From TrEMBL:
InterPro entries: Methyltransf_25, Methyltransf_Superfamily, SAM-dependent_MTases_sf. GO terms for molecular function: methyltransferase activity. CDD domains: AdoMet_MTases. One of its GO terms (biological process) is methylation. The keyword Repeat does not apply. It comes from Streptomyces malaysiense. This is SAM-dependent methyltransferase.
Amino acid sequence: MFGPEGPSLRELAVQALSSVEHGYDLLAPKFDRTPFRTSGRVLDAVARALAPLGPFDDGLDLCCGTGAGVRVLAGLCRRAAVGVDFSAGMLDVARHQVRAADGPAIGWVRGDARALPFTAAFDLVVSFGAFGHFLPRELPGLFARVHSVLRPGGRFAFPLPAPAPASDPLFWTLLGFDAVMRVRNALWWPRFVMYYRTFRLGTVSAELARAGFTTELRALPEFGRRADGSPRVRLVVATKPTTQQGS
């Protein structure tokens, strides 16, 4: 999973005993050589699924990390693609890796996703693999902030894999990881919030509706279907209404 150019076991241990922000500052130079980076397969599938919903003028990548999602926005947006993250280290790597060419302007903002420093400035907000850093009780505020930075009719989109069944070793791997993180956070400060099994479709759908979105689910066919026929990966597309309800 980790190549010779990736972080060492010691580096990962130091990161895990840091705060989320400082941990990612430490990991940033080698982040793209870890399995934590969203795969190109997922990025490409999301880009293909979103393209027919455009055109988009301005896009925001929420918790952009080293900028892989901003590259997706650069192919979908005509005017600007902006990445926001609270890790200065991750943003520094992103600035060096993703540069404006003939496409939209590229921008980087250091900020907390729970307190986005924007008004209604975007037509599209995306996020890839970041939601494990938010506790379930934080979702209402997070989704409300995303709603506030979208223009009427704007979209909030993110891929959401189906949970692994109990017969899959991945189920027990993720369960074990979450258990270890809970013990770590109970015994060590500052906390490192990263849980894989807290971002569930039912809760997400309810909180998106509560924030004022209308939501549709689109299967990403590149990832196939499970034995019960359900998609292995869905794209959640939440839309901010063009008019206020009741008007």
